[in-house]
Amino acid sequence: MKSHTTTERAGLCLPFFKQGDDLAGHLDSAASVSEALQAYAENLNLAAEMLRDLAGSVSGREVDIEAGAHCIEVTGPADLIEELIGQGLLNSPDDWDKEDDEEAVRLAD
Fold first, then answer.
1. Nearest to 50 by CA among 7, 25, 84, 75
2. φ/ψ (deg, to 5) at 68
3. Domain for residue 31, yes or no?
4. Within a domain: residue 92?
5. How many domains does the chain divide into?
6. Any residues with CB less than 8 A from the CB of 65 and at least 6 apart, and which?
7. What residues make up the domain containing 51?
8. Which residues lie across from 77 on neighbouring strands?
9. How far apart are CA 107 and CA 101, in angstroms?
10. Are 40 and 23 in contact (CB under 8 A)?
């Protein structure tokens, strides 16, 4: 008899939206163009670090990735996904709904 592994889905939401919009935000708040570019580079470094951490955590494990427009969805064994959520590497789908609601409120203001 074949055993069935319970799977779960969670997301990796990288700290950027659109390259022009993100850079514009830094340009608006930074004292200089150079400072804005450095701040933007730090965001990209953080995103790369997040991807490397996830890659190390799923190495050798059976996971599926769906690269969406707003989030990278990871589906895999429930124990692994729950562990990655607990470590803060992934966000549960419930958190996505909260973020979507917060973004809708922000945009409505």
1. 84
2. -85, 175
3. yes
4. yes
5. 1
6. 72, 73, 74, 75
7. 8-108
8. 7
9. 10
10. yes
- Looking at every residue in the chain, the average pLDDT score rounds to 86
Residue 62 within any structural domain of the chain: yes
Torsion of CA 71, 76, 81, 82, to 10 degrees: 130
- From residue 97, give the alpha-carbon distance in Å to each of 28, 52, 57: 29, 25, 25
Q: What pLDDT is stored for residue 96 in this prediction?
A: 67
Distance between the two ends of the chain, CA-based, in angstroms?
56
This prediction's pTM: 0.76
- Is the four-CA dihedral 77, 80, 85, 88 of positive or negative sign? negative
Q: How far is CA 25 from the centre of its chain?
A: 19
DSSP state letters, 23-51: HHHHHHHSSSHHHHHHHHHHHHHHHHHHH
| Positions of E strands within 34-107 | 64-67, 72-77
